[in-house]
Design a protein that fits this description.
Low-confidence stretches: 1-7, 21-32
Order of helices and strands: HEEEEEEEEEEEEHEEEHHEEEEEEEEEE
CATH topology of the largest domain: Tachylectin-2, Chain A
Distance between the termini: 12 Å
């Protein structure tokens, strides 16, 4: 970025911060040729994901960036998409994947879109209708492919990628430097009670009889994404002991009496230098305490160590703000990897999950942080074309 462009952006950002993101409509061209600032929230969108490479770089297609998300509309049997040229104005692109007539017939969520060698892949979670389980939650993970980010996406195979023997959700794809693809996902809390000091404490206080937990796993994928190699590896789980530094923030939904479950979900695996980072969401996704933490490792499948500065994104209502239920996001990089962003959902004035985007920062000590949740005008990503 040259000096003139830097100065222009700083002026525009200052004006946006002072007067609101709509100011660009009256800013003369000498200051801003296009909108300079975006502002959260940006409409309803749960479990959002910006189209990117499996290594994290955002993908521009037809001059636009693409967003996939969980629809709150009950009549959508699949997934919708939106597109944007500036991360301010979004255009509805309609249904990109219609799953009717496939194994995935209900409860669609957490789509993740990737561009690989000119093809577009959509990993997703859904209710596995044909599976012969008697349990209520028959969740599993599938993958579809298309020639355009607008679809129509078609299943690679009309069955889930694999069956670990328990319900799984929240697929995330990462391809390492050597070309090996990995899938991270979460085992559901459903019918998964786990003994811990928190569970014992809840029983002694007559709060809950048991605490169910979801755990994050990783597994190597076959190169065609139609199957897996080996068995799942446990990556992250809630703390067993109450004196664990992570126990307080990862148990807030339980200690607040919201629900008898602890989640580890919404994983996002990425690499910075020689280190592997995995972001995850904890607490009840439908409650106020949903929040984001991360862990690091030297290999894609760990072992992972949770960060001392967790959580890196949480509700701000305790500080006088309006944002709560913060989580289930994904990381995307600028095409030159000079910027990192976190796209996620949160709640504000209603229970609708709304789209948020905030900058992710790599600190000098190797820790990461997120400059959010923000509701004030912020400069658009620096890689957006003018």
């Amino acid at each position: 970025m040259n000096r003139r462009e830097f100065q222009r952006r700083m002026v525009g950002a200052a004006l946006c911060a002072a007067f609101g993101s709509e100011l660009y409509r009256s800013v003369p061209n000498s200051l801003a040729d296009e909108p300079l600032c975006y502002q959260n929230p940006q409409g309803n969108a749960a479990d959002p994901c910006v189209l990117r490479k499996p290594t994290g770089e955002a993908v521009e297609y037809d001059g636009k960036y693409w967003l996939y998300y969980t629809s709150e509309k009950g009549n959508v049997k699949g997934f919708e998409a939106r597109s944007t040229r500036d991360f301010i104005t979004w255009q509805d692109e309609g249904v990109v994947f219609d799953a009717r007539g496939t194994w995935a017939r209900d409860a669609f969520w957490a789509p993740e879109g990737y561009e690989i060698d000119g093809k577009f892949y959509l990993f997703f979670s859904a209710q596995n209708a044909p599976y012969p389980w008697t349990q209520a939650e028959k969740f599993n993970i599938g993958v579809a492919v298309a020639d355009s980010p607008k679809g129509p996406f078609k299943l690679l195979k009309d069955e889930p990628i694999f069956d670990p023997g328990y319900p799984i959700i929240d697929a995330n794809l990462f391809i390492d430097d050597d070309g090996t693809p990995y899938l991270t996902f979460s085992r559901c809390c459903y019918q998964h009670p786990v003994e811990s000091e928190l569970a014992e404490k809840c029983r002694n206080e007559n709060k809950f009889k048991e605490i169910e937990e979801s755990w994050a796993y990783g597994i190597e994928l076959t190169r065609d994404f139609k199957g897996v190699v080996g068995e799942p590896t446990l990556l992250i789980r809630p703390p067993v002991k109450l004196d664990d530094k992570q126990a307080e923030w990862e148990s807030r939904s339980v200690t607040a009496g919201e629900v008898n479950r602890r989640w580890t979900e919404g994983t996002a695996l990425f690499k910075l230098g020689d280190a592997y980072y995995i972001a995850y969401s904890a607490n009840f996704f439908g409650g106020d305490w949903y929040a984001v933490g991360y862990a690091t490792a030297k290999k894609p499948l760990g072992p992972y160590t949770k960060a001392e500065n967790n959580p890196i994104l949480e509700k701000n209502t305790q500080k006088g703000g309006t944002v709560r239920g913060v989580g289930h996001g994904n990381i995307f990089f600028s095409p030159d990897r000079s910027e990192m962003w976190y796209v996620y959902h949160a709640r504000t004035d209603s229970n609708d999950r709304k789209l948020f985007i905030d900058k992710l920062i790599l600190n000098d000590d190797g820790t990461i942080s997120i400059d959010g949740p923000s509701v004030d005008p912020r400069p658009v990503p620096g890689f957006v074309k003018r």
